Amino acid sequence: SPLDAGIIARNAYPGSICEMALKVFASCYGAAAGTLALFVQPFGGLYLTGGVTRRLGDWLLDEGSLLGAYFDKGRLSPLLDKVPLMVVKADNLAERGAHLRTVQLLHQE
Known about the structure:
The protein is mainly α. The chain has helices at residues 6-10, 17-40, 51-63, 65-71, 77-80, 93-108; strands at residues 46-48, 85-87.
């Protein structure tokens, strides 16, 4: 369907407009992740999740736009060296989170 964003990823051949669109997306995603990391300073790591991240995770890390934008924070960039950036590939995080919280609540009693 024309509303399926996966069509862009499937047609992201080198030099194509789809590849350029993915690079713009990766840059925006990386910049937002870097800004969030500076704001909350999660020195244990910043975890990127979600369907798009799961499907494009390897490409996002290998291509360079995401990491380039993530670390492009001027004089604050060295602070991001202390924040590991991780891509979560699991597709059932909501269920895992609900399970973990349930177990925590049960052990509180």
